[in-house]
Amino acid sequence: MVIFGIESSCDETAAAVVRDKKEVLSSIVASQIDTHKDFGGVVPEVASRLHVENVSWVIDEAIKQSGLSWDEIDAIAVTQGPGLIGSLHVGVQASKTLALLFDKPLIPVNHLAGHIYANELVTEMHYPLLALLVSGGNSELIYMKDETSFEVLGETQDDAIGEAYDKISRVLGQGYPGGPVIDKLAKQGEAIYPLPKPKAQGEYNFSFSGLKSGVLQFVQREARANKEWKVEDLAASFQKVALDEIFDKVRKALDAHPEVQSFVVGGGVSANSRLREIVKELEKEYPDVTFTVPPMRCCTDNATMIAVAGEIAYELGRRAGADLTADAAMEIC
Ligand code: KG4
């Protein structure tokens, strides 16, 4: 099957053509990061307008670079949610137009499922599977007993982890997006400053807002006391607590589910170098589990993952009509 995927849930307008869930024939991503940098974060109204500006050429370029004609596309898959409502609408409208124009089946796809299935592009996924989703909008630990069932074991009770990286970076005057900057600073520092350990309710839930306040209070306290501190050490201290919060729960879930065959990661924070090292350490601790952190091009928002998820949804018989609407708070499915 050849699926044309469209993604526009946040600040990337993306289109891709993927054959049989494995072969990427084209993948175009128009990122808006440079525009949102000026505002210190994604501005939803600006994002929607830029999607409108970009969506047509991104689609044109994806079909052109695939070397295929529309006749050779079997179906159109689109992110229905979750995400920013105005942003989602642009992709949904574009996909409906293409489906109508070229008489193709239209498949609604969940963005989070897309992040998990992105791993199909680089590895064989075996079930039961544990997936960790860590991005600017989500932090979730998901158990899948088979390819199509999603049980959310835990999720953030406040900020997403990527959001915490972005906010800390702003507090430290390091710009947006914060993840890559904090990651780099943390590598040059040591986790020597005491920061509050998150206290999320529930066995597998996460919390990052107390940690974020802890960093802010540390900066204010040191300033009041006229004390010197190193931004690299503070970045390392924040990152240690944030990743411990995630991986304490991951270990707990792996211990509670010895039947798990594969562990996969998705979302922009999977680019984090320390996170990748920790996954390598887990490989030794749990030799019966296959661990995968996909390459960067698959981690951040893109449309190849939507095309892969689209083929799986197609096989399940999922179809949408001209009445398809975006769903900003869509549950994973
Ligand atoms: O999945 P993604 O591209 O889209 C959204 O959810 O919007 O993730 C973006 C997030 C941002 O919060 C960014 O700061 C974070 O991923 N990120 C990182 C790193 N690279 C990107 N966080 C930690 N370390 C990184 N190296």
What would you say this structure looks like, in words?
- The chain is α/β, with parallel strands linked by helices.
- Helix content is 44%, strand content 18%.
- The chain is built from eleven helices and ten strands.
- A five-stranded mixed sheet has the order 3-2-1-4-5, sandwiched between helices. Strands 8-7-6-9-10 form a five-stranded mixed sheet.
- A hairpin with a 3-residue loop joins strand 2 (12-19) and strand 3.
- Helix 5 (161-171) packs parallel to helix 7.
- The protein is globular.
- Bound molecules: 5'-O-[(R)-(carboxyoxy)(hydroxy)phosphoryl]adenosine.
Looking across the biggest beta sheet, what order are the strands in?
3-2-1-4-5
Helix fraction bin: 40-55%
Cα Rg? 20 Å
| First-to-last CA distance | 21 Å
- Characterize the largest beta sheet: strand count, sense, and whether it forms a barrel: 5 strands, mixed
Structural class: alpha/beta
Overall pLDDT score: 96
Q: Compute the number of strand runs.
A: 10
Tell me the series of helices and strands, N- to C-terminal.
Answer: EEEHHEHEHEEEHHHHEHEHH
Bound heterogens, unique: 5'-O-[(R)-(carboxyoxy)(hydroxy)phosphoryl]adenosine
**Tally of alpha and pi helices:** 11
Unreliable stretches covering 5 or more consecutive residues:
none
> Strand content of the residues, in percent?
15-25%
Shape: globular
